[in-house]
Design goal:
The chain has helices spanning 6-9, 28-38, 42-56, 61-73, 93-96, 105-133. It is 57% helix and 0% strand.
């Protein structure tokens, strides 16, 4: 494994043994999956991509330990239940590419704040639903 590669930080994307077949892309099930994907609404498509990202970016044990260590170094309380958010602001090729808009640090911060507010509301709603079910 190369230092800094995907495999250094995340769990494997598949449980298949090395060299195992990943399936026939011409099979009936593959064709059915492509057809179903093409019929998704934009919302469903977005949800599918979120689920795929959540699966692919599952941190491995070493990465989790590193994050916990960094949390301690900056004084992040262990009992804190809120998510810790990291933002990667690209400034290299994304800035010089004329098709991409430059986002200020303030705009990144506002987007994170908006996201965190929505996540907090969602978490509160889930807690209320769980309490009502008890």
């Amino acid at each position: 494994e190369m230092k800094g590669s995907y495999a250094c930080f995340f769990q494997p994307e598949t449980n298949c043994p090395e060299g195992a077949s990943r399936g026939d892309t011409g099979s009936d099930s593959s064709r059915e999956a492509r057809t179903r994907f093409q019929s998704l609404s934009k919302v469903e498509e977005g949800q599918l991509y979120q689920a795929i990202e959540a699966y692919l970016f599952r941190m491995n044990d070493q990465t989790i330990a590193s994050v916990r260590e960094r949390e301690k170094k900056v004084g992040f309380p262990e009992e804190q239940k809120r998510p810790l958010v990291a933002v990667h602001a690209r400034r290299g090729d994304k800035v010089v590419d004329s098709y991409n808009r430059y986002y200020t640090t303030r705009e990144y911060a506002q987007a994170v704040f908006t996201w965190a507010s929505k996540a907090d509301e969602c978490q509160q709603q889930q807690q209320q639903q769980q309490q009502q079910q008890q």
